[in-house]
Amino acid sequence: MVPSTVEERIINQFNTSVKKILQSFSNQGMSSKEVAKKLRCGVSNIRRIAKKYGICFDKKSYTENFINSTKFLDNAINTSNFLSRSWKQENKDK
Q: Which of 32, 48, 62, 64 is the most buried (most CB within 10 A)?
């Protein structure tokens, strides 16, 4: 009998739980798009199933890239850092 759901296909293909497989892919830093391609299904399916098991994709690399960006670390206020710290207006009359 052919598996009818994406989760059944994952279980049959890897012979382990869906949660373990998706967690493994997440730990490897894979994006939901990469996982969907590997599992031959839609990205929306992967995101839905991952949400069901409390697994996140795509967030780790975005956060790391953002925090280490030169715009975020810049001393002047800009669109990348305006919410990251308190800004004091300089008094130019001194």
A: 32
